[in-house]
Design brief:
Layout lengths: L2 H22 L3 H22 L7 H13 L7 H18 L7 H24 L4
Helix pairs in contact: 1-2, 1-5, 2-3, 2-4, 2-5, 3-4, 4-5
C-alpha cells in the first residue's frame, strides 16, 4: 500500500482512539474534534487512492462527495458523516454559544469507526491496502 494512504489510515485510527479517551475523561468537544479529524484523514486516504490530494477541509469534503458519494463508490452516508462531523467540529473548536454533548461526541466516534472500516474494505477490494 502507498505509504501516504497507510499513514493517513493510521492517523485516523489514532484519532478515534484519542477521541474515546477524551470522551472518557469528559471532554466531549475535544473528543468530537478528534473524531472528525479521523474522518478527514479517511477521506484524504481515499482521495489519495484516486490520485488527488487536498489539505483544505472544504476541498476534501467536496471532492470526496464527487469521487465517492455521487458515483456511489461508497455509500453516500459517509459523505453526510463527513459534512456533519465538520460542522460539529466547527462548533467544538470555535463555537461560543453551544456545547457539544457526550451523545454527539459518541455518535461522531461511532461514525468515524464505521467510515474507517468501510474505507479499509474499499481499499482492500481495490487492492490498495
Amino acid at each position: 500500500m502507498d505509504k501516504s494512504i497507510s499513514r493517513l489510515l493510521r492517523l485516523a485510527q489514532e484519532s478515534i482512539q484519542g477521541a474515546r479517551v477524551l470522551l472518557k475523561e469528559n471532554f466531549p468537544g475535544q473528543s468530537a474534534s478528534r473524531a472528525y479529524y479521523a474522518m478527514f484523514y479517511v477521506a484524504q486516504a481515499l482521495l489519495w487512492s484516486r490520485g488527488v490530494s487536498f489539505s483544505k477541509h472544504s476541498a476534501v469534503i467536496a471532492r470526496f462527495g464527487q469521487e465517492f458519494a455521487k458515483t456511489k463508490r461508497l455509500d453516500p452516508i459517509y459523505h453526510r458523516y463527513l459534512r456533519d462531523g465538520f460542522e460539529t467540529r466547527q462548533i467544538a473548536d470555535y463555537g461560543v454559544t453551544e456545547d457539544i454533548t457526550r451523545k454527539q461526541a459518541s455518535e461522531l466516534i461511532r461514525h468515524a469507526g464505521k467510515f474507517l472500516r468501510e474505507a479499509r474494505a474499499f481499499l482492500r477490494k481495490s487492492k490498495l491496502e
